Every structure is written in C-alpha cells, then in structure tokens.
Amino acid sequence: MHIFAKWWIKQLLVVPTLILFLIYTLYPIIDSLMLAFSHKPPFKKPYFVGLDNFYGLFNDPVFIIALRNTTIVVIGSVLLIPLGLLLGLLLNVSFRGATAVKVISFAPNIVSPFLTGLVFFFIVDPGVGVLNGFLDKIGLHALAFKWIGGERLTPYTVTVLDSWKGLGGLGVFFYAALKMMPKDMFEAATIDGATSMQKFWKITIPMLKETFKFITVLTIIGGLGSYQTFYILTSGGPHHKSETLGSYMFYIMQSKGGDIGKTSAMALVMFILSMSAAILYLHLTRKRLDE
C-alpha cells in the first residue's frame, strides 16, 4: 500500500508539467495544423478549405522567391560549417588573448538582432555604408556595388551577413567537442610518429562526425527559419526580392488582413522542409558510416 501511495504521488507531481505542455505546446501545434487547412476571416470563425492555402502558396510568385532565398540561406549556412570548425580549432589553442577571442567570437550570438542589423546597415548600405566609401577611397570604384537595395545582390549580401552571425556559435560547438576528446589517443599517435595533419584527419575528424551531424541539422533548421536580418535590413525589398519564408509570413500577417490560414500553411511547409532535410541528412550520414 505504501509503494502504491508513493507511485500516485509521483504521477501527481507530473500533472502540472503535463497540463502546461498540453496548453502551451500541443494545443498550439494542433491548432496551427487545423488552421493550415482553413480560412479565417478577421473576427470570424475559421472554416475548412482543404488544400486551397497550399495551392495559393505555390502559385504565389513571392512565395517562390522566398523559398529560393531561404534555400540560399540554408546553403550559405551549411557552407559556413568548415569555417566554424577552423574557429573551434583556433579557440582550442592556448595563446595570449584567447579568452578575448572566445568572447568576441560568440558576441554576435547574444547581441540583439536589431543592433547587429543596424551595424550591418551602416557597413553595406550603398548610400551611407562605410564599405563602398572605403572602396572608393582606395580606388576600387568598380567593386562598390549596390549590396542592399538592389534586386540582384541583396539576397546574397544578407545571407552572408546572416550566416556570419552564427559563426561564433558553430565555433563554440566544435570547441566544446574538441575539449571532450580523450588526450591519450593523440599522445599515442604522437609516440607512433603521426604528424599534426595525420592526427587531424585520422583522429579529430572521425571523432567529430556526430558533432558535424548535430550542427548540420541545427544549421539547416535555423536557415529555414531565418528572417531577422532580412527583415531588419530590407523588410523583404526591393519588390519582395529579398523575402525569406519567415519574413514573408510577417508581411502577410501585417498587410493582407492577417491571413492566418496562409501563414499556418507556410509554417507547415517550413516544418516539413526542416524535418525532411534533417532526416535525409541523418540517413545519408548513417549510410556512409555503415559503409
């Protein structure tokens, strides 16, 4: 009887957490899923419209642009992972000022996106930015492009800036993984006469495979949800040429009567893309490891 009473006490202690989970996590997910297949006029009840929201999305040219730009962000972010590894290797080396380098590297991750966006604006803006002014002063007028505000370069410029913000976080992940590696393997390799490059390719990289998988999945999901830098620097302009899926969702909510059905459908598309990319990557890496 005493054991049964203790079991019930444990179950009751879980109830508050379960209630909070149902209210703040499970219910919004189910509600958003239902809204993706519904149309909800302002101040009225939603009604079922089937796949109309998804049909409207994939026939919306701005959504296609946003999807393309989001893909560019994802690719740019993934290509930055090797630089994150290099930063992690640098942070793992003891030298004078190493602590300062660690703080500076991670600073963009904790600074307000608005502040970093403002700093980027005063660097790359064609009118007031210091980059083009510097290029003009040293005689490189041909390289003084319209980095933001133009239809051609804006998505790529903002992608580079947005990806750069996450470089410090990648470096810290790799730094933590490097710190956890057993030293005896490297000491044994040194005794056997292995060079630094041999130890890097034969020991460090294989032991970082799980870290690479984890970071790549996080980077893909983060890239698909990227919007802050785009929204702050360009608000999706000019002519929606720099929209991402996230920034376009904000635009729809603000300027199209708050079409919750369409934004919910877009959120579902983003979720499916995130999960598909993550599952595909994990499947490919596992298959490669099995071989």
UniProtKB/TrEMBL annotation:
The keyword Transmembrane applies. It is found in: Cell membrane. Pfam families: BPD_transp_1 (PF00528). Its main location: membrane. Gene3D superfamilies: MetI-like. It comes from the Bacteria. The chain crosses the membrane at residues 12-30, 62-91, 103-124, 156-178, 212-233, 265-284. GO terms for cellular component: plasma membrane. One of its GO terms (biological process) is transmembrane transport. Keywords: Cell membrane, Membrane, Transmembrane, Transmembrane helix, Transport. This is Sugar ABC transporter permease. Belongs to the binding-protein-dependent transport system permease family. The keyword Cell membrane applies. Residues 66-281 form the ABC transmembrane type-1 domain. It is a multi-pass membrane protein.
